[in-house]
Amino acid sequence: MTRVDTIALPEMPPSDGVFLMGELVAFALALGADRNLRSLLSERAHASDGGSFAVGQIAKQAWLQVDAGRVTAHRQKPDAVPAIDLNEILTSDPRVKEALRVAGSNSAANINAEHLISALFGPNELLTREEFAFLYGLSPMLEQLAYGSAAAITASLDLARPHLLAVIHGHPPYREATVSWYWRRIHAMAHLTLLASDQQARPWLADMASGFVWNNWTPTFPLLRERTVWLAACAARSAVAFGEPVVEKYLRSLAKARHPLKALDALFGLTAIGLGCPAATVEILAEIRSLKEHLSDRELEEARLFELAYSDAIWTLESRGNIRQSEVLDLVGLREGGNARRGLATREALRSDPASFTDSGHFIGFAILPTVLTTEPERFYPIQAVFRSRKRPEIRNAAELLRRAWSPDVSVTSTVH
Q1: Taking the model in full, what pTM does it have?
Q2: What domain range includes position 13?
């Protein structure tokens, strides 16, 4: 990983986004830990002795506010706080560049940053709650790089999937490495997507989503198609972050969907947005009802599954989240009054299929949405590291989960090609 003292060097190409994320995290850590660096920047910002000040424009999109060693990230320049532009100061004051170099070399900032960024990509499925909470607090300066990295992983998974499909039906000696690689990557994609799912990121997310034609992509599809509840939960938070600006595109995807999984995905995204953005609920409900009325005209295969998915989306939106959650919580290991140390990262949530049904006949994916959307992002993660728990599926279990998602003979929502 590049050291913290290179934070303000010329912008890196997109392929180096992961390394730039590491540099940004290292800078935030160094700023909080190194008193000399803070003192010098405070002086240049003309802040009162020991007073608050802000440093921008980090990654050309964020500000870091410093309050006696506590560092917080913001999307806009903090009001009534003295501020400096780091790049300008670095070009005009060699002392700042030297202080930044010393802060990086004399502290654990680089080591800790490397650990945190590495945790996003494995080798375990999940970070700890504390690790994700720290990174999420820095999301204003990390989110665009994180989403870009998630998109790159999506592309790499699409390229690797034909090989995976051969492997999960092949012999165990060839299975473990490929399955492990794929399993880690889909969870890395989820972490990065969740990191970019703050609703304040909506303006740039909406701009990005409007910049191309949605063919086989939606904000939720890369994760929902892997068919575990935990991944679907991350997808739901992403849909809400995109929000109302993408409702029309989701509706177009729904109207042309000819595979149950594509319909389920569009309805899942629309329902999440309807619950997370109440102002959009009435419009979304009306549009889904209208499309449902004409389902019989479309001569769809597996029409019953389309009917069930539409009905469940309407049921969830009509209840406005006031759904009795005990049944679905029990199914995914989130029993009321259960162990809060697990968060959403239960063994069942990591393995259960959102396209399967509760005992009362509802899709688990829709039924769990009220809980998912009222859970803080850091509580998607366990307090304890995954490798010290029993929640981590063995590779053979991961292979079964991937086979469930991608085998063409699987009922309900087989893979979409």
Answers
A1: 0.89
A2: 4-116
